[in-house]
Amino acid sequence: MEPMRILIADDDGVSRALLEAILKYWGHEVVATTDGLEAHQALQRDDAPSFAILDWLMPGLDGPEVCRKLRKLPNPKPLYILLLTVKDQRADIISGLEAGADDYVTKPFDQGELKARILAGERLLGLQDALASRVVELEEALASVKQLRGLLPICSYCKKIRDDKDYWREVEVYVGSHSGAEFTHSICPTCFEKELRPVLEPKSGKRPARPGKKS
What we know:
- By secondary structure, the protein is an alpha/beta fold.
- The protein is 46% helix and 13% strand.
- Helix 2 packs parallel to helix 3 (63-71).
- The longest helix is centred in the middle third of the chain and has 36 residues, at 111-146.
- The radius of gyration is 32 Å and the shape is rod-shaped.
């Protein structure tokens, strides 16, 4: 289990202290809050933990209500929420999950079960982070390709392209850096007739074959 920052919310001081001690023993950093309102505010900060363990029954805002409010936020950050509850009826569990919780543990909790569920949440957060990184990479790649669209300033004589930093670069260099394409050089028939044949004929005494034709 990798160390994480975990927010806990429980209005019962003894339960909160016990949970905090267990999490710290496992190596986690704990942000302790005493009720749902305090937890709701703490989880909206820029440095908020990405994992939260909320007691279901708390004054003010209970655990499910905190879940509902957090899930309704625009552009929410990745957050895994685990509910601690004495409610063990199927309808209660469904209600908590529908409110926005990712998982639950019934109280009094078994330490082994709690640890396993935290590990499951950690894996999910890791997958979300990896996916977010891939999305950023794809967006950067698409942005790079899109730079080839529109008007490109190209020299009428040497055919070099002016880049964003006002440098003139060879076409293949510019396109390669903006798309990842690679180039191989050859000679088209028109350029062969115009540029190379006049140079080669006087030296060889015969007409060289054009590219792509057998002599």
